[in-house]
Amino acid sequence: MGDPNTTIMWINRKWIFMLKDGTATLDWGEGMAQKLLSGEFTCYTPDEYSHVLRDEEMLPLIEAGRITSFNAQQVAIRAWPPR
């Protein structure tokens, strides 16, 4: 479920969103996002944006160890290990 020594960052929930292709991402601004499952960076356009992740869409990310918890305003996300 992830390294317990990995840094946990609390971020605004509105920055965690789904692309229309079903990819859960973390918004880094100016059309740059990071895929939550792979850590890979990707560019997106406003037309590709779908919605802020719903509660039920957070559960697979918890199971994958990518996020540890969430509430209505924030998400606790694990930092990706250095490559």
State the helix count.
1
Total strands: the figure is 8
- Helical residue percent? 10-25%
What is the beta-strand fraction? 35-45%
Widest sheet: strand ordering? 5-4-3-2-6
Shape: globular
The termini sit apart by 19 Å
Category from helices, strands and their pairing: mainly beta
Which stretches are poorly predicted, pLDDT < 50 over at least 5 residues? none
Let me know the largest β-sheet.
Answer: 5 strands, antiparallel
CA gyration radius, whole angstroms: 12 Å
Our count of domains comes out at 1
Structure commentary:
With 83 residues, this protein is mainly beta. It has one domain (8-78). Helix content is 11%, strand content 42%. It is built from 1 helix and 8 strands; from the N terminus they run E-E-E-E-E-E-H-E-E. It has one helix at 55-63, and strands spanning 8-12, 16-19, 24-29, 32-35, 41-43, 49-52, 67-70, 74-78. The strands form 2 sheets. A 5-stranded antiparallel β-sheet has the order 5-4-3-2-6, with no helix packed on it. Strand 3 and strand 4 form a beta hairpin. The longest helix is centred in the C-terminal third of the chain and has 9 residues, at 55-63. The radius of gyration is 12 Å and the shape is globular. The mean pLDDT is 90.
